[in-house]
Design a protein that fits this description.
The chain has 643 residues and is mainly alpha-helical. The chain is built from 20 helices and five strands. Helix 8 packs antiparallel against helix 9, helix 12 packs antiparallel against helix 13 and helix 17 packs parallel to helix 19.
Length: 643
């Protein structure tokens, strides 16, 4: 599982302040609280890691006591990587920082007030600590031979003294009293008048107050100025013309042939012959027989198919021409909206004042009720919502505080106090919820904001949400395809390397061109250090009977597999000609780490002391190869690619 990243409060706060000026100031209560100073913790030896128990214990004590906002030096942390890039010191991400000058420069870049160097001792609960005031490097304090809790208190006391000295006004030199010479007797020789002596009251040695350090933010997210495009009013669609299926065709049949009229049949003629002697009577010729033809069957008329009905829709009503307000009209509209909001805020100021007073007295429920009334009176203003979020947080309702801050950000996306509040929530709770909320809002405002996608990805990585981090990095990568940038590809390569996804890392590295090898080397060095530290920590824990055989064996087995995978990755990377020799040392070191882990597995299974000694020897050899490689790389002036 990838190491947990530490969110830097002070650097993030400074970053938020560069995003714009917006609007509202925090409540009086929030402004009166002075945040604790930020301290950066370094280990004296470059090989020490975050797993060093003395460092972890000290960090926990400092955080729990509320003395400092603590950041541990970790080259994988996005905040440090960005600080290195912005300060033009890419070597901070590839070459371990071992000099006070580099520690001071990095601490300044991160906006820290102090840094401390912790030296590993045989008694891990009594580390040797050197505390340095970043704003006055000549001032430093040593803490030795104290347990972790006492050491943390001593560091806090020294830091408080330094902060107090910096905040105190410089003493105004007292006017120099002139010591007058005693009266001179007439016969005495001319008196020697002592020159005026300036009596300066004893003061503490002057503290050099450095100018405010401009903190380079980890991600400078400048929300783009959105110029409203001309409003294109699409013509309203013409009303749908009801088209009835072809109405029954009115068929005019072809004229029928003349109707044959059948007269009613004539009654049979009754012929009464005249009486006559028998004779051959020739009857009068009968009238022609009228033959009644059988009635013709009804004519079946098949009408010709009607032509398709041509439906001519009614002409659409004329579309009104789009009215695009000019810049002055837009400015006037915005000013009118701002004036309306300010009038609402002025109307609820008495409620805000009462809420601040209740919160100061510790009456959180009363303050929340008053702030809610203020929100109802000025729903489009950010200040009442921010005050309500702060009250929720003070009352322990973190989820409600976050929800209200989200709503405040929706009504005022550029409000610096709201962004500061969200980031401070992360610093106080060591989470990334505030940053996720902030960058999500920026992306909703401008989906093409590359820096916002990168910031959201970093926040997800810090929070351990690697799938979401990868998705945001890929979104930024797609946007950068049109700009030629490589920040997203660089972060993806680094994240894949940390996850031992070496095939994916190689695919990203192939896109970096000339910066490919420095980034690959950064992955190799960091992974090698992490594997060695994991083995050493697991062995110390096992020998101290703090872990079981099964736990030690599982760790050794995992490191053996990852060490071999790292060796294969090193082999797949082609170094520049000048670094072929140092690259071979890197590959040998990775193989030795894998061998050490395999030997430790045998040692755990058999309890053979010889196998334990062999594993220790392999570890020393791996460390030696890594140091040799590092010396060769520095000799050839290798620098690492930052963001």
């Amino acid at each position: 599982m990838p190491a947990k990243r530490v969110t830097l409060r002070s650097a993030a706060l400074a970053f938020a302040c560069t995003l714009g000026v917006g609007a509202v100031a925090p409540s009086a209560t929030a402004a009166s609280r002075r945040p604790p100073p930020t301290i950066v913790l370094f280990t004296h030896d470059a090989g020490d890691s975050d797993d060093f128990s003395g460092l972890k214990a000290l960090r926990a004590k400092l955080r729990d006591g509320g003395h400092f906002d603590v950041l541990t030096y970790d080259v994988e942390a996005p905040a440090i990587l960005r600080a290195a890039a912005d300060a033009h010191h890419p070597e901070w991400t590839t070459t371990p920082i071992t000099t006070d000058a580099d520690r001071l420069a990095l601490s300044k870049a991160l906006g820290a007030s102090f840094y401390a160097v912790i030296t590993h001792t045989k008694s891990s609960d009594r580390p040797d600590i050197q505390l340095v005031d970043v704003l006055a490097p000549a001032h430093s304090w040593s803490v030795t031979g104290k347990k972790t809790g006492d050491a943390a208190d001593a560091l806090a006391s020294d830091a408080d003294q330094a902060v107090t000295q910096r905040s105190a006004p410089e003493p105004t030199p007292a006017p120099a009293p002139v010591t007058a010479a005693p009266p001179v007797a007439p016969a005495a020789p001319p008196a020697v008048v002592t020159p005026p002596v300036t009596v300066t009251p004893p003061v503490t040695p002057p503290v050099t107050i450095a100018p405010p350090v401009v903190v380079t933010p980890p991600v400078t997210v400048t929300p783009p100025v959105i110029v409203a495009p001309p409003v294109v009013v699409k013509p309203a669609p013409a009303p749908a013309v009801p088209v009835t299926a072809n109405p029954p065709a009115v068929v005019t049949p072809a004229p029928a042939p003349p109707a044959v009229v059948t007269p009613a049949p004539a009654p049979p003629a009754v012929v009464t012959p005249a009486p006559a002697p028998p004779a051959v009577v020739t009857p009068a010729p009968a009238p022609p027989a009228v033959v009644t033809p059988a009635p013709a069957p009804p004519a079946v008329v098949t009408p010709a198919p009607a032509p398709p009905a041509v439906v001519t829709p009614a002409p659409a009503p004329p579309v009104a021409a789009a009215v695009v307000p000019d810049a002055k009209q837009q400015a006037d509209q915005k000013q009118a909206a701002d004036d309306a909001i300010q009038q609402q805020v002025a109307a609820v100021k008495p409620l805000l004042a009462k809420g601040d007073a209740a919160l100061a007295r510790g009456e959180v429920a009363m303050a929340i009720s008053l702030y809610r009334q203020a929100v109802d009176g000025a729903p489009r203003a950010a200040q009442p919502r921010l005050a309500l979020a702060q009250a929720y947080l003070q009352g322990g309702f973190r989820d409600k505080a976050l929800d209200e801050a989200k709503r405040a950000l929706q009504v005022s996306p550029d409000s610096v106090p709201i962004k500061e509040f969200l980031i401070s929530m992360d610093a106080e709770e060591s989470t990334s919820e505030g940053s996720v909320t902030l960058y999500t809002a920026l992306i909703a405002k401008n989906p093409d904001d590359i820096s916002a996608h990168l910031g959201l990805a970093d926040a997800y990585w810090n929070d351990g949400s690697l799938d979401r981090a990868e998705a945001e990095y890929k979104a930024a990568e797609a946007l950068e395809a049109t700009t030629g940038g490589h920040r997203a590809v660089t972060q993806l390569a680094r994240m894949y390397g940390a996850q031992s996804r070496y095939a994916d890392a190689l695919e990203m590295l192939a896109q970096l061109g000339a910066t490919r090898y420095p980034m690959a080397l950064s992955i190799i060095k960091n992974k090698g250090d992490a594997l060695l530290t994991s083995l050493s920590t697991a062995r110390d824990s096992f020998e101290a009977k703090k872990s079981s055989h099964e736990q030690f064996y599982d760790t050794a087995k995992k490191v053996a597999a990852e060490g071999q995978a790292l060796a294969d990755f090193v082999h797949a990377v082609t170094p520049p000609a000048a670094f072929k020799l140092s690259h071979l040392h890197r590959q040998l070191a990775a193989n030795l780490i894998a061998q050490e882990a395999s030997v430790l597995m045998t040692y755990i299974e058999t309890s053979d002391a010889d196998q334990g000694d062999k594993a220790a020897s392999l570890e020393k050899s791996a460390q030696s190869e890594m140091l040799t490689a590092n010396a060769g790389e520095q000799k050839n002036g290798l620098t690492a690619e930052g963001n």
